[in-house]
């Protein structure tokens, strides 16, 4: 049973526009959420994280929103750039087991010039 | 600061053999986690080591084991390899300070079992 779900396998966006990647989770014990970007043949690269005590966290062009009641989080990339084209993974963990990240299956983002 | 390094990067083994993969964490990081990535199952947690002790373990058979040394370097071992063990094995390290628990990944070891 998937505890972290990324229901869109792919997303295509025009350069300069906003990219919105979504993630849903089922385990209400999750209290820390992360987004990673992954290029082929490389390990995931950490992008941004958010604790369950917050509902928003910003870092440059990346903003993560957390809606605990809906068990939903999203990653906004503004403006999108061709170099953002990669697979994006949402991950979650439980306090006390932060070393165990539960990953979604990923969303492949393509940013077209 | 150097990132997480993993050796070897690529490995080809035969069914029934065993394999050892190595991971050197970012300097100062004491937690090391291992993950398996396959096209069908995605990224799955294997185990986490902190201060030479296994702290968490995922749902993998006992053929998968690991250890951590006093310098935080970690190894994972897979015995009696099966075709289904072909995957990208990723290691990640963390600083483990309060809420700062972001994991930083190495490039992975691509294991092919024939």
Topology:
The complex is a heterodimer of chains A (113) and B (114).
Chain A: E1 4-5, E2 10-14, E3 19-25, E4 30-38, E5 45-51, E6 56-59, E7 62-67, E8 72-77, E9 86-94, E10 102-103, E11 107-112
Parallel strand pairs in A: 2-11
Antiparallel strand pairs in A: 1-3, 3-8, 4-5, 4-9, 6-7, 7-8, 9-10, 9-11
Chain B: E1 5-7, E2 10-13, E3 19-24, E4 31-38, E5 42-50, E6 53-57, E7 64-68, E8 74-78, E9 87-94, E10 104-105, E11 109-113
Parallel strand pairs in B: 2-11
Antiparallel strand pairs in B: 1-3, 3-8, 4-5, 4-9, 5-6, 7-8, 9-10, 9-11
Could you characterize the architecture of this molecule?
- The complex is a heterodimer of chains A (113) and B (114).
- Chain A is mainly beta.
- Chain A has strands at residues 4-5, 10-14, 19-25, 30-38, 45-51, 56-59, 62-67, 72-77, 86-94, 102-103, 107-112.
- In chain A, strands 2, 4, 5, 9, 10 and 11 form a 6-stranded mixed sheet that branches.
- Chain A is globular and about 40 Å long.
- The termini of chain A are far apart.
- Chain B starts with a strand and ends with a strand.
- The model of chain B has no long low-confidence stretch (mean pLDDT 93).
- Chain B is globular, with a radius of gyration of 13 Å.
- Chain B has no helices and 11 strands.
- Chain B has 114 residues and is mostly beta strands.
- In chain B, the strands form 2 sheets. In chain B, strands 2, 4, 5, 6, 9, 10 and 11 form a 7-stranded mixed sheet that branches. A 4-stranded antiparallel sheet of chain B has the order 1-3-8-7, with no helix packed on it.
Strand pairing plus helix content of chain A: what structural class?
A: mainly beta
Structural class of chain B: mainly beta
Share of residues in helices of chain B: under 10%
Oligomeric state of the chains present here: heterodimer
Rounded mean pLDDT score of chain A: 94
Query: Major β-sheet of chain A, in short?
Result: 6 strands, mixed
Give the largest interface pair and sizes. A-B, 24 and 27 residues
